[in-house]
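Is zinc ion placement plausible here? Inputs below.
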Amino acid sequence: MTDAPLRLFNSLNRQVEPFVPVHPGEARVYSCGPTVYNYPHIGNMRAYVFADVLGRTLSWKGYDLTHIINITDVGHLTDDSDAGEDKLEKAAAQKSQSIWDIAKHYTEAFKADVRALNIRQPSQWSVATDYIEPMIDFAKSIADKHCYELDSGLYFDVSTIADYGRLARAVTEEGEGRIDTVEGKRNAADFAIWRKTPPGETRQMEWDSPWGRGAPGWHLECSVMGEKLLGFPFDIHTGGIDHREIHHPNEIAQNQAFCGCAKGSGGLGEATHSGAKIWMHNNFLVERSGKMSKSSGEFLRLQLLIDKGYHPLAYRMMCLQAHYRSELEFSWEGLGAALTRLKRLVMAVEKLRDEPSQAVAEHPKFAPILTRFEDAIADDLNTPVVLTALEDALAVKKVDAGMKRAVVEEMDRVLGLDLLRLKRTDLRLRPKNAQITEAEIEADLLRRKEARLAKDFATSDAIRASLSAKGVEVMDGDPLGWEWKLA
Ligand code: AMP
Ligand code: ZN
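Reply from A.M.:
I modeled the complex. Tokens:
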């Protein structure tokens, strides 16, 4: 190992900085989890592929990792500032179902996507509604100095802490540009930490509190679970770039208040006041047609990709091909190219699978490639470069196969493509609407081969045409040895 220190981009000071753990030898990471009112779209899953690569890298660097991902089952409104309805209450009303059933169903769906993408399980999934009491206690502890009560709830006064909104890129002074629907707020950027149930209304999810019956504001849960499970300050907080604008600035404001940082002291010049030392944000997966959304009708789910015959790890590959801080545009062609790249890797690795791993670090052919790999991943998780280093390592000629295997094993510890287990045939998924089974295709292809050997080209062409009519493209001479695919 080059021992290149891990350097990460901190959105708080907008700089790449060395990772220095709060607790020596440990890494404590909190990732904002999904709001479970619907299926996650593949953009959401990009956030967890990123957090997974971060976690794998910290483990690979030897840190003892504690990673928390929360499940938001209460509090997230249809607008990130305090407007609209609770997303779960709304979904439950629309479907005439209990919120708890909805949350359970979509939590399971999310976890299935996590498994399919080979994202490691966090140390704990923390569910927001399991933390209502601690949320009320947290709010009580900051209410006197930092909050005020309105008819609609308890609000956080952002003018009571220093550097509010420093994380955000949008103009946040006085919350400019935000939809402001709450009457009586002192500053436009003030936000609810407790939302009272309006008189005459009942909510499926509501609890008693010193500010009346109601539900916690969305930002409160992450402050509380972060503090309870990891302790302030912890090392790294992650989320998508949308969270950089409202959710995380508000979480940080609450954390500053909790840490006793009043205005005049406790500014964010010292990152520990924010609750976490490093705040990291993945950029968005976007669609050419517009913003990816799970609240409007049909959207891109991992299952849709699978139904169309793309292995889920092709999507992971697509994510790894871009730096996490770059916007990534989704297209089916791009996904197809990522699948082809994954197939090539799997083909090359299949031959090495049964080799015993061999020490490799000092080998003159591999040492520079390993250095490139280590420098790239340590440089703010540059996975695109890691992928090319892996391909270069696989292309090295006249070396012991066991050494190559060891290199693959090492690099895949951070990439998480499951290369030593995946088989080429695993990557060929059957599109849901396919009219023909694999066995039938193979049988037809065998007959076609025999016809060609006998120079009976009429039969061979007829078989090809009949396969084509059933959506099977015969791929003679495919460089990957892929004999057919379902269109
Ligand atoms: P949500 O379920 O909406 O709370 O979002 C779950 C995670 O996905 C959060 O970290 C979001 O910031 C992130 N996210 C939402 N949309 C996208 C997208 N299109 N691309 C990447 N990350 C996203
Ligand atoms: Zn959060």
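Short version: Residues 7-286 form a domain with the Rossmann fold fold (CATH 3.40.50.620).
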